[in-house]
Queue: 3 jobs
Job 1
Amino acid sequence: METQEGVTGQEGAPARATVPAPQTSRQAGGYIRVSQERAARNGYGLAAQEADIRKFTTYKGLELIEVYREEGVSGYRRDRPALDRLLADAKARRFSVAVFPSIDRAGRSVKDVIEIDRTLREHGVDTVFLREGVDTSTAPGQLFRNIMASMAEFEGRVIYERLSKGKRQKAAQGGYVGGWLPYGYRNGDGRINVVPEEARVVKQVFRWHAEGRTPHRIAARLNEQGVKTQKGGPWRASTIQGMLGNRFYTGRVEFEGAFIRARHDAIVSGALFEACRRA
């Protein structure tokens, strides 16, 4: 006895249910990303990127199932949570078209952009880059993608070098360019501020050492007094030793092998610092 889908075959045997295939032919996923320097540079934020994607999908009659948002993440990073979700959903056949506002939103590296596009196409997903008008489902589109990705990588390198040059100029003038600050100092709105209660401890440490106390004895004394380190832990001789050798406390910073006058306030005098070095 012949059987058909949804019709009982042998008597008493239930018909095998048909499992519908995922409907992805007219569905799309959008990806948007912004890094802090990019947002400050041209204002093409997440809202504007999402609006462009929605306009495109509406015009093309695509159902936009999700917009994957990446906020404050550099395009040079390959490990991006939203991008990873996009690729995972592409593998699960949730959509058949991935829409990016531009190539540089996908990544700042030619290698990464090509790899992302190749991964999407392996899962049957076409990639569209709106600003460049690139559809990588075609051979010309793939070629143009490579050219534009190279330009995006070059642009990113120029931005990086410009920022590095600015930091270098600031450092040459004794300015703070970020990074760890020693006990006694805190960063506030881009300025280095002295923490008064910690500064008193720093001065005492230098005085004790100038008087002949060893780092081990100084650490023990601070722990007896209940004084905590910057991270809230006990003092160690190695921590004291590092403090005593740090010229930052004299209001100076190292730049290209030389110590120059910095913009932050000194906690100990140069004379006391040198006395401790001789102790």
Job 2
Amino acid sequence: MKIKKRTENVNNNRQRLIFRGKINKSNTSLIIWLIFALLIVLIAVLADVIVPYDPYEQDLSAALMPPDSHHLLGTDQYGRDMLSRVIKGAGISLSSSFALVVIITLTGCIAGIISGYYGGIIDSIIMRLSDIFLAFPGLVFAIAVASVMSGGLVSAVIALALISWPKYARIARAEVLAIKNEPYIQVARMSGLNTIRILIKHIIPNIADIIIVTAVLDIGNMLERRGLIQDAYVFLAQSYCYEAGRKLVPGSYDLTTDMNAKEIMNAIVTQSSQTKDGE
């Protein structure tokens, strides 16, 4: 009997070691990328402290210098240190994307929870409103809204918020519809809890996991979409504020100081009409 127990213990220990080995191997890449992501966030947070040079200071005598011991990534056409500008731009890009995700998550979840819990005419109004925003091509609608608001980083964030909140509203609504008639919700109603306490204590905690996962995954997505908007039309980068997406459109500020959004759109339409007439 003792030998059998020892054999079983040895087998159990082997299985645990094998299982731990599998977990460690599968988590290695996750840990590496997590460290990399945390490093980027840390650099972005400490951007003002760790930048070697002023990212806005111009030195035309050092323009377009190759990487060396003083400028690890070289300089741009105005002699500004590229490493300093990349670090500073990372902070602005990540902070604006995070703010955007927070805005659309809160707005969409509040609308979705109200729509799913109350139903009826409130549900119809909110869902039809979301259908209106979803009916437009996302990036085209965002570019149009940002151009009407005269461009800039804040305009791009607001424009993307207008087209992105319906996704969270629909997710929250679907989750609320799935649980609002569960027995524990009915018991909470029968016990005398008001709607606010039911939502805070029973509804929101049960839908928070999928909302948080979606929001975290959307940070990179919003960073990319906001960059696409600013790259598509140079008039969306009219401020002196440097951010990562704006490096792809050098000289855009010089153009936008002389032409506003309406003039640029008129020029594009005129050129398109002339091309069609020529054909």
Job 3
Amino acid sequence: MKKIYGSWLGNYPIFKQLYYMHDKIIKLIYKNDIIRKIKYKNICFNIKFNLNDGFVSKELFMKKIYEEEITSIFYDEVREEDAVIDIGANIWYFSLLSSKIVWNLGKVYAFEPSIDNFKKLEKNIQINSISNTDLLNFWLWNNNEQLEINVDPTNIWHNSLVKDLKGWKKESIEVKTFDSLLDSWYIKNFEKIKLIKIDVEWFEFEVLLGMKRFLKSYRWIIILEFSPIFYWKKTNDFIDFIYNNKFISHKINSNWSTTEIDLYQENIKSQVNILLKRV
């Protein structure tokens, strides 16, 4: 059944209905935190989560993998000696995946501002006996300041600076520019950074604006969610910024391939995962 959910058959209505019925049943059975072993090719790690934490937990439980098309890019592009930046590590899956790929020769820097998620990330690092990952309890932004994040109590993977719904709690977080880390001890050996993943709920542009100095000097791969309908009037400015910094944009397809795209043509869509590479 789990193999069906994770395949193209899982997109059919009947299997979607079974998927959600299965979800309700397993949540009744598994009320406490559980640990799942994740295996992708020769990479293996454990991840601890609660099925009531949101949709990502359900994906991990049923499929034992999350966003396989992006997982494959991490695996294909990152090498043992590389460094990886995970901005918005709340779904700590990619931090754990990266730590196992780069192993002892590389480094992972995981940024997570929410204190609850940060503690869970710490726990998962301990469970896997990982020593090559630095956990940073702040967010990256286009300025150094304090902001207020809205925390969804029913879905820890979906905290937002914008959404403020009834029942959500507010949490003060620290934000910094990536460029400001140049003169600090937080990150070393910038030239070894190979891949940056950005998942910050519609504020990818702000994160990149805080990286302007580095974007001019290094040839990184960047993976982010491109969400034009949520950028309001900033969409074209965001696209201009990407192309002015000599990036080529690729759509990450569900069949694990990538296709070069024109973001100006994609800006009518709600959301698409993209990969940016320097020319």
